[in-house]
Design brief:
With 328 residues, the protein is an alpha/beta fold. The protein has helices at 13-22, 69-73, 93-105, 162-169, 189-194, 206-218, 232-235, 258-264, 284-294, and strands at residues 2-9, 33-35, 38-42, 54-59, 80-82, 85-88, 112-116, 129-133, 138-143, 146-151, 177-180, 198-203, 225-229, 243-248, 265-278, 298-312, 315-326.
């Protein structure tokens, strides 16, 4: 079967395999193959592969020894993977239990299965989970060479945003000052710090900040990250005019914090503004809000308009990369 594969010289194969495994990009259903001095590593999402790696489409043999959940169920189940946890969204309790049992009985390296038991709720954006298999809701997620310990019942984290986080992180340069206004467990600031940035991460969720500090230590960047548990608007006076880069990943209400973001911005600052809007005008409301908040003090240039993913029928999760340059 033809599948996307990363192609590298054989001598670079193990390092590349480790990099792809750390980003959870290896397609476990297919064999890694060698041909004419090249190693071919099947991948799950070619768009998420780092830009310096070559992706080709070629025939790859299926793993004969791996038993999948689909083989045990007789149909393909829908679930997300986060560390060693499988995340379900099944309304039928019996179906949920069947899928959970098939996942842990398969050859996938998943020990725990959780089913969504509520919508995201509250200021801390967490949800309830039903534990179907395994123990507890804690895990360690690996993404593009970084490790994130977290408790899904206590913090918000979306594995679907891995590619977007990597896209932003690749823009960061050594010596930058980066500020994440809604930092969570650190999926933005930790890769930023690994690229040499000095970072501040703020969140109202005390547990998220505890995990952010732990994850900074896990990834060896604790000296470059300041973690603050607070409403970001309370922190602004201490960092006024400080930031070269600001992340605003609170898409339902980021516009309410734009005055704070403008106050944090230095003379030349890139703002990553996330929004959820109707498909008819997904970027306009955010752009207009940013221009209004920046006012005459800053020249506003929209550098990127990007659709991150579909959020709901006719609604899109989008990102605006905006440069703010202070006028004379």
């Amino acid at each position: 079967m033809d599948v996307p594969c990363v192609r590298v010289p054989r001598e670079e194969g193990e390092a590349t395999r480790r990099e792809l495994a750390a980003a959870d990009l290896i397609a476990d259903d297919y064999e890694i193959t060698v041909e004419d001095g090249w190693l071919y590593v099947p991948v799950t999402d070619p768009d998420a592969v780092p830009a310096d790696l070559e992706v080709v489409v070629r025939a790859a043999p299926e793993r004969e020894t791996q038993t999948t959940p689909a083989e045990l169920l007789g149909s393909e189940p829908s679930f997300e993977r986060l560390g060693d946890v499988a995340l379900l969204d099944e309304d039928d309790p019996e179906r949920a239990r069947e899928v959970a049992r098939a996942i842990v009985d398969s050859d996938l390296p998943l020990e725990t299965v959780l089913n969504k038991a509520s919508k995201i709720k509250g200021e801390t954006r967490v949800r309830d989970w039903e534990v179907l298999e395994g123990e507890g809701t804690e895990t360690v997620h690996r993404e593009y060479g970084c490790e994130f310990a977290l408790d899904l019942a206590a913090v918000y984290f979306s594995p679907r945003l891995a590619t977007e986080r990597h896209r932003v992180a690749e823009q960061v340069r050594d010596g930058e000052r980066a500020f994440d206004m809604f930092a969570g467990v650190g999926p933005f600031v930790i890769p930023f710090a690994k690229r040499g940035a000095e970072c501040v991460g703020v969140d109202v969720n005390e547990r998220a900040i505890e995990y952010l500090r732990e994850n900074a230590r896990r990834n060896g960047v604790e000296e470059r990250i300041t973690a603050v548990c607070a409403d970001v608007r309370e922190v602004v006076p201490e960092y006024e005019g400080w930031a070269d880069r600001i992340v605003m990943n609170l898409p339902h209400s980021a516009d309410e914090f734009l005055d704070a973001a403008v106050a944090l911005a230095g003379d030349d600052c890139v703002l990553h503004y996330y929004d959820i809007q109707h498909e008819d005008d997904p970027f306009g409301p955010g752009e207009r809000a940013i221009r209004a908040a920046a006012g005459p003090a800053y020249e506003v240039t929209v550098e990127t308009r990007r659709t991150v993913r579909s959020y709901a029928p006719h609604e899109l999760n989008v990102c605006l990369d905006v440069r703010l340059e202070r006028g004379d």
